[in-house]
Automatic annotation (TrEMBL):
Keywords: Hydrolase, Magnesium, Metal-binding. Pfam families: Hydrolase. It comes from the Bacteria. InterPro entries: Beta-PGM-like (IPR051600), HAD-like_sf (IPR036412), HAD-SF_hydro_IA (IPR006439), HAD_sf (IPR023214), PGP-like_dom2 (IPR023198). This is HAD family hydrolase. Belongs to the HAD-like hydrolase superfamily. CbbY/CbbZ/Gph/YieH family. Its cofactor is Mg(2+). One of its GO terms (molecular function) is hydrolase activity.
């Protein structure tokens, strides 16, 4: 461990931080919702759905529609999402070299379900970099509640205040802040002002900046 860093561990969100799925899945939601009569702009999609759990997104979609989703919607979403990830999933640019340079214990904390996270990390060949994985099915409350990040710190054996969180969505940023952690916001495709309003301490747009920001390369 680099004695100059103020952190004892780093916890990464997955979608939009490790793998480039955030916009891909939002686009799928946008397409499928338009097929049943709900047309939303890209900005509305980011505002309503980005960073949230699948159950929360379904609740929001029902609220916006004003009636329940079709019975087949959730299964169709799962099938089409898996097909997209199997063919189009990519790592966030420079993420692997960044992970190799961060010589601290690392975990993943995500609003994804375990099966989905396992698929993404294996597909991207990133599993070897992490000592713990905390998903929505491991806790009572998803982000923006702090549960996922607090459990990740516990699994790593590190005090929350000594953890850095790497997030992109305002929902996730608020979760890290609520856990008492310092949040570094990846802003390559996100609004920095919204990230700062959510509580991010630092915003950056290139993953290669992160080890220097953490003082642990």
């Amino acid at each position: 461990m680099n004695p100059e860093t103020q952190f004892d561990a780093v916890i990464f969100d997955c979608d939009g931080v490790l793998v480039d799925t955030e916009h891909m899945i939002n686009k799928l939601w946008q397409t499928m919702l338009s097929e049943i009569g709900l047309v939303l702009t890209d900005e509305e999609m980011m505002s309503y759905f980005s960073g949230k759990s699948l159950p929360d997104n379904i609740t929001k979609a029902v609220e916006l529609l004003g009636h329940p989703l079709p019975d087949h919607f959730r299964n169709d979403m799962a099938v089409r999402g898996q097909q997209l990830m199997a063919t189009e999933l990519e790592r966030v640019p420079f993420i692997e070299e960044t992970l190799l340079r961060i010589n601290l214990p690392k975990a993943v904390g995500t609003n994804s379900f375990s099966e989905s996270l396992d698929f993404k990390l294996h597909k991207a060949d990133l599993t070897k970099h992490f000592q713990a994985y905390i998903c929505i099915d491991h806790v009572e409350a998803p982000k923006p509640a702090p549960d996922i990040y607090l459990l990740a710190a516990e699994k790593l054996g590190v005090n929350p205040e000594k953890c850095a969180v790497i997030e992109d969505s305002p929902i996730g940023i608020r979760a890290g802040v609520a856990a008492g952690m310092t949040v570094f916001a990846y802003a390559a495709t996100m609004n920095e002002e919204e990230q700062k309003q959510a509580g991010a301490s630092v915003c950056f747009t290139d993953m290669r900046e992160l080890p220097g920001l953490l003082n642990c390369s």
